[in-house]
Amino acid sequence: MRSILLVLFLICNFSLCAQGIIKGRILNQENREPLPYAHIETSEGTTILTNIDGSFQLPVEKDSVEISISYIGFQSRKTTLYTATIFIEISLKPSMQNLNEVVISAGPNPANTIIQKALDNKNRNDPEKYLENFSYKSYTKFIVDNETGDLNLSADSTSAEIETILNDGRAYLSEKASTHYFEKGKGTIEVVEGVETAGFENPVYEVLALEVNPFSLYKNNYSLFKTEYASPLGREALENYSFKILDTIQGNRPAYMIYFKPKRDRIVAGLEGILYLDTETYAIQKATAQLLGAIKLQVDHSYTYLKEENIWFPSTQETTIRPGKGGKEIAIFGGSISVGAIQQKRGFFQRLLKSPILPNDLYLTVSSKNEEILIPGEPYEKRRIAKIMVNLEATERKPDFWETERLIPFTNRDMAAKAKVDSLIQSGNVKRKLQVKDAISRGYYPIGIVDLDISKIFKTNVYEGLRLGLGLRTNEKLFENFSLEGYTTYGFGDEALKYGAGANFYLNPRTSTTLKFYVSKDIDETGSVKFLKGDNPFSLIEPRSVNADFFYTYQTYWTGIEHQITSNFNGELRLKRDEITQIQDYQYLYNDQLFSDYNLSTAIFSFLWRPFSKYLSTPDRTVMTEKNFPQFTGQIEQSFRNLADGDFTFTRLGVRADHEIKRLDKSRTEFILEGNYVFGDFPLTHAFHSFPNNPNELEIFQRFSVAGRNSFETMYFNEFFSDRQAMFHVRHQLRPFNITEQLKPELVFISRFAIGDFQNPQDHINIEFDTLDKGFSEVGMELNKIFAGFGLSTAYRYGAYHLPTFKENFSFKFTLILEL
After folding, report:
1. pTM score of the predicted model
2. Potential cystine with 588: which of 10, 116, 190, 683 (Cβ 3.0-4.6 Å)?
3. Closest CA to 288 of 271, 268, 305
């Protein structure tokens, strides 16, 4: 009996919910094309706009309602809608008179004229360009939910089954209260005063860093969930979008209602929507943008008019994503979800929550509201460590704090969801999955209280042959303030055991201040350069090491300290002693004495400077939220003779500059400029080899191997050594070829150049090599991601070091790009 009552209760509730919604679509009568943003007004005064596919959902309180539909260039139409109708299509007839007046005129498109005036007045209307400083408070609510409605569940519900059914599908809920301080020339600092994430003791900081509700629509690129779209008021707005006037809205501040649609959406990612532009200042009063198909995305912006400053300031933003037909990836939780494919396959949410079937009406929404706008603003008096600063007490706020800081209603359903999400997070083992993803991105896999070092499991090179090993590091589950690490590995070719062990003491997690101690015995490649700081991404395969064959053995003892001097400047200082033994028959002539084995006592300072990147500073770490270019890496290494039995005195200097230009059509160009210089009394082990990656074989297919990313593919191993060198790499990737949803190969054109020299090469005995004083040049091409990350690469050597035959100058290899 109870089950029958439950079913009847649900049927009645769902019927009542559906009774007040009329669904339909507005179409062009002649070609049956949808009319985006058509204006619908009921006899009771309710007004709505259709979506970009002409669809609408009209809430009504009676069994029927009279509506009036208008659209520029079409004859208006009145009709009656009935709630008993499941779905209705309404056609509008084009009006040639209106079309001639507004769209097909002999002169320029009037909408383009208005947009051009809006572009001309951008610096006056953009608060970040016009105002010297301002501050404001914001509240943001981030929800993954279903669309069963905002239900008021009573505390004395007699049926747990009903509550479960009505609330199921809710997967994430967080809220944030912040104060923003803007100063021209320094940008905006967001200070997070309070943050709470249901299901987590500490917030998921990666979500805080997502730019889901951009502050300004005036920027050239419009970023949503780490996806870049062309802005309708960007620098190339008239090239990327077509515009049309839909209406002129009357009020205290009249506005032009301008419809925008991408012109080149297969090349440049764009949104479709409407801008409400002030008729006097051409500033944005409000805006709506949508993207339907791959995903259903909608963004709504509202601005408030500040009369004294005569400026429109952002007041509310809401971004909503619903499942679509395709598989568009949206970044969230530090990873990505295939929102549009949720119903077709087990996507990120299913794996995240171990849920076999998710509701068909699942959606993600982020709502923000700004208040307490001060112009001029309150000054930010503390040191600007990062773009986003999370206060120490932000995660420990009491309920009374949220009662005063919530600028958006926190409904009864939201309250019920907080308890529900906690159980979903626990049952789906979400914390574990986030831990695994974070560890793998750094080259580790967490197993209980230790992390497995994946990079130590398998390697291969010419000297060692197959190299197998095991590396472990303790994690925060065992010790929070320090960690122990170690590895051991065995080479089956040289039949030798290698090892390493160390300890890290985390003195200040917020500034990454870490004291390190390490000892190891292993091999290294002669002439190699490794910056302590810089981009050292984890990779399963190191292409160059596979074919490298000139190594030496070292036993090293070192101690160091790392510190985040500023949010974008990280430095590390090391003091170390190396005991080096030659594997091959190499000797260094110094003071009429031949050295094959020697000791080095060295101090190294290395830094990484990312002046344009953005960071999030939390109580326990600093996270880079947006990587921007250029960035710079440098290193100074000084070796001392007679200090701790050091045999030589020399200085090694290195600097590298990386720059990348990304475009909205997903093409990009990368530049790398690197210089290295060593002077003093140095062995060949500490000179430079310029990163060759061509095996020393005669035939092209004998040299078939894995191409490196920034190595010289036609330069043979041990062919060149330098004591001073400069290298320049250029990679230009065309936009991907969208052959199928799974097949999107990328064509890359490459040019590389290196120049160098070597003084006193005669001091290096039993080895012959050339210098780079004439300049080494090669060009190449890659076709990446042909299948499962695999691609093909070719390169050709030309110029001063061109060799006699084609096959000596040509390389043919495969590429492997794995994205974890």
Report:
1. 0.78
2. 683
3. 271
